[in-house]
Amino acid sequence: MKKVIRLFVSVIVFLNLCMSFGQFAHAASWSIDSSHTSVAFKIRHLGVSWVRGEFRSFKGRVEFDPVNVTKTKVAVSIDAKSIDTRNERRDSHLRSPDFFDVENHPKIEFVSTKIVNIQKESFDLVGNLKIRGITKEIKIRVSEISSELKRKGRRSKMGASGQTKFNRKDFNVSWNRFLDSGGLVLSETVYIYLEIELNKME
């Protein structure tokens, strides 16, 4: 009889553990908290300094499973005309057909396709970036991934950082001018820096 009771207790404990693990392992949906997120960039100017800016308007959704990060899915849409480099004349030029052509291509979009190079606290997020109607594959290094912050009566939070770079000419963002010295006004490589805060979707 004692053996039967011990077996019954063991089964109950095992089932409870399985249920708890299943809840923990289930992929959750998250939305980007735009008020606490930064989508920033920098580009070399005249070969001597950097012009920095960011996009002010964007939205996105993330599916994330902390147990199996290969299931992670990300979709982001950025309002191209929200570009801000703290210089209105320059921003107007960036919105023009010379650069983003926001009238014909109002959105910059990214959709992930896979996760590679998984390490203890980072991974590479591979996906398709669409700018000016041109889609190219890029790789974003994601790091500083926080654990879920649960808050009583409020949405849970998560955060992460990301970095990538690409050649803007691949997306037909190709405006430039030669300097008298023979160099170019702008470099072709653009560096992207992401500081992401997420709200758990109920």
Describe the structure.
- The structure is a single chain.
- Mean pLDDT is 87; it is low at 7-25.
- The chain has one domain (27-200): Lipocalin, CATH 2.40.128.
- It contains two helices and twelve strands; from the N terminus they run H-E-E-E-E-E-E-H-E-E-E-E-E-E.
- The relative contact order is 0.17.
- The chain is of the alpha+beta class and 202 residues long.
- The chain has an eight-stranded antiparallel barrel with strand order 1-4-5-7-8-9-11-12.
- It has helices at residues 2-25, 88-95, and strands at 28-32, 38-45, 49-55, 58-64, 73-79, 83-84, 107-116, 122-131, 134-143, 149-151, 154-167, 186-200.
SSE blueprint:
Elements: H1 2-25, E1 28-32, E2 38-45, E3 49-55, E4 58-64, E5 73-79, E6 83-84, H2 88-95, E7 107-116, E8 122-131, E9 134-143, E10 149-151, E11 154-167, E12 186-200
List keywords for this structure.
single chain; 202 residues; alpha+beta; 8-stranded antiparallel barrel
Q: Quick recap of the structure?
A:
16% of the residues lie in helices and 49% in strands.
Q: Tell me which oligomeric state these chains represent.
A: single chain
- CATH topology-level fold name: Lipocalin
What's the rounded overall pLDDT mean? 87
User: How many DSSP H or I helices?
Assistant: 2
Low-confidence blocks of residues: 7-25
Looking at the structure, what is the overall shape?
A: elongated
What structural class results from the helix and strand content?
alpha+beta
Using only CA atoms, what is the Rg?
Answer: 22 Å
Terminal CA distance reads: 46 Å
By CATH's scheme, which homologous superfamily applies?
Answer: Lipid/polyisoprenoid-binding, YceI-like
User: What's the architecture, going by CATH?
Assistant: Beta Barrel
Number of domains: 1
